[in-house]
Design brief:
The complex is a heterodimer of chains A (386) and B (576). Chain A is an alpha/beta fold and 386 residues long. Chain A has 17 helices and 9 strands. In chain A, helix 2 packs across helix 3 and helix 4 packs across helix 9. Helices cover 38% and strands 12% of the residues of chain B. Classes of the chains: A alpha/beta (386), B alpha+beta (576).
Chain lengths: 386, 576
Amino acid sequence: MKAVVETVPTVYEQLTSRGVSRRDFLRFCAATGAALGLQHSAVAQIAKALETKKRVPVVWLHFQECTGCSESFLRTSHPIVADILLDKVSLDYSETLQAASGHQAEAALQDTITKYRGEYLMLVEGAVPVSHDGCYCVVGGRTALDRVKEVAAGAKAIIAWGNCAGSGGVQAAKPNPTESVPVHALIKDKPVVNVQGCPPIAEVMSGVLVHLLTFDRLPQLDALGRPKAFYSRRVHDTCYRRANFDAGLFVESFDDENAKKGYCLYKVGCKGPTTYAACGTIRWNEGTSYPIQSGHPCLGCTEAKFWDNGPFYQRLSNIPGYGIEANADKIGTGVGAAVVAGLGTHAVLTNFRKRHDIGEHPGENAEQVERAEAADTPPPASDHQI
Amino acid sequence: MSANRIVVDPVTRIEGHLRIEAEVKDGKIVDAWSAGTMVRGIELILKDRDPRDAWAFCERVCGVCTTVHALASVRAVEDAIGMKVPPAAELIRNIMYCTQTVQDHVIHFYHLHALDWVDVVSALKADPKEASRIAQSISKWPKSSPAYFADLQKRLTGFVQSGQLGIFANGYWGHPAFKLPPEVNLIGVAHYLEALEWQKEIIKVHAIFGGKNPHPNYLVGGAPCSFNLDEVNAINAERLAMVGKLLKDARDFVEQVYYPDLLAVAPFYLDWAGIGGGLENYLSYGDLPTNGFSNVESYKFRRGAILGRNLNELHAVDPRDTKDGIEERIDRAWYHHADGSTTGGRHPWAGETNLKYTGPKPPYDFLNVDDKYSWLKTPRWKGHAMEVGPLSRMLIGFAGNDTEIKEAVVEALGALKAPPTALFSTLGRTAARGIEARLTAKWNLEFFDSLLALLKAGDTRTFTKELWDPITWPTECRGVGTSEAPRGALAHYIVIKDRKIQNYQMVVPTTWNASPRDGQGQRSAYEASLIGTPVHDPKQPLEIIRTIHSFDPCLACAVHLYEGGHEIGHHDLLVK
């Protein structure tokens, strides 16, 4: 089964070799463009890219993680994961899916990072423990610390999947027993895209990958290194229950009369007002639902250090510059004139803040930059050519 | 011939980081060591947090068997504070559980295990017409025409000819242990790809009730969703219809693809019904309550233990027994106790543990297996090493004379013309998983019918409000939440003090199976099952991963630590 690399066909050649017509190929390109939210004019660009490119070598490393990001990736509906694996990338190392184990798996990794130095994409799932010389995560007899540095050295770009690779994740929650750190804390000389979430939404993961493969450049990133395409809107601003918040209609307790009407979950702890994610727009599992739609407050899992932002069922307070707490209290309790006055004030404030927050430069509002600095995150690598 | 030490690290197509070292002599394994090489310390992180938040942390123990740790966690808290969940919430949990089990078993069979039995390269030589004939002879599954298999073969050929073999690179293709005809290999590859699409569909059930998958939301006291048949913003007839369709699709795939494939592949590998048996003891806590979690008698999966493969006697198991029940030992694991001891065990409510790595400094070629060699502790029940998982559940149902389980097991054995003793093996473990998938897919539809009947009768409650506020809790309490995860018996132990988590401990399926030996030298399930396994070529560990994969390893689950009492004792962690 040793094959000759020099004869690698393009994605287009591969598709046609398995009987896909030109017409179907262009339809596939259009669907991919639509998935990325692109104008129709970009379809030609996608088609050109796929006609002329070999499958990009990809290595997927696992460290301190739960494999939830891999599982989420398997759920992607466009493109479906079989098409990604067979037609779009060459997943040369993946502890979850690859046939080979042990020495054969390690050889596959070494082959790729040697042969395709400077060309392969490095995908990372999990955080890296640095305490005690890295003894808390060892793969193939070598520490995660060693492995991440070795593989990063020849990578074209790095995608950090999920909250663990992006900000340390659950193992970095207090007291962070193994001193777990995210990828960008260790790799400073390579672009790192943080595809946040616990896990990230499947179509966000595949969308970022398709963006890199199609346009040969990183997507624009926010101050936390997250692609703006998916992380520039607050869950609160894209939430279909937002009108209830604005109207002061809140769930007071799970499964109460208000919960049965789908009122706002802010008072039972929803972190939507401080969370930037695509849950309200793309939703989960091919658009089936998202946490708030199912009746549970947002945990805020696309934000750095969200594990220590709880307790989860305690309402948010002291949101910088928002004062939602005060307004929600005024609106959510009591009856009569106070409520009417509160409503008016709240509505005005809401509109003002909405404009401020949604803004002309999504993802770059003052609050976000402030939080990014506090979380010691990397500078944005927007428009980085790769 | 002297023994030859071989190392398999990483073991792939599993969850987490597992290393196997084995000694091979005269073409057979004579000794083996199983090591978990990653630790996170989730239980330490849980200390002092709100017990109602614990499920979210615990759920992140594993994203493959996502939900099972959340379920065990909410049960542990409810058990501690004396909370009962409404019937509709119990049914939602059961539906999410069954959906998870069925999806997880199918993913395991096709994506984590199949490449141990199916030679992908051989499929290139298949006759698509013959593949079609075989497929149609074993199932009415519609995707089975000659053209379908010809198209797939063409696609696969193009992929291989590209020279970029991706996940199939360096596989063990052509190894003499592969026995399937090319046509069955082609069917296997077809269903590998179909299962990839199927799994993302049926798991939408989790998104409906829990908002997302992986890691759907749970809630202490019930389920987070509400029913309102006259409201678009709640679970209504449209959402329920979607659940109903998905559950039917799940069952159809199991009945028409997974189970027929299992029965088609197994006859070629009947020699594996005599390999990999390992331990002779089996444990299950039971699950799927039909009248409340506290009513163990109402479970669909029974609780109990089998010793010495004696199916005529089912032993009672009490997870609360602190005197002569479950304990986790650290004899061969990288932990120590606060009193300075480095061996012995504790019941989960009473113990304490600290990380202390004493293995070789990485990079290393071999672990020092004569000393401590894993981050997994070693659980024991009344001093016995126990196997947990689908095989244990089926055997315990069988021994307990559960009619449905017994019939399903007998039917499968009949189809394979195999005696019951064939179950005690690598193949038996893999077959038991398929049998169990049939049962859970069927039960899932029954739970769904029960839910509809309940709603029709007007009981739409999904949450118990009474004990939600921590002010209503006792100052000190403790609980245990058990479940039967896809990989086996799971127990979460919690001690709550002053409304905060004082101590949290998870005793996890893969910890039972993959743990290092204990101080008495008793091997746990992985190590025991590898003894006697043939190894054709020590450079190619195909036979080793076959048996290891038959357990469906989940290492992130298995490795954890907890700390108890007032000795924090993690100075070893924090002070370099």
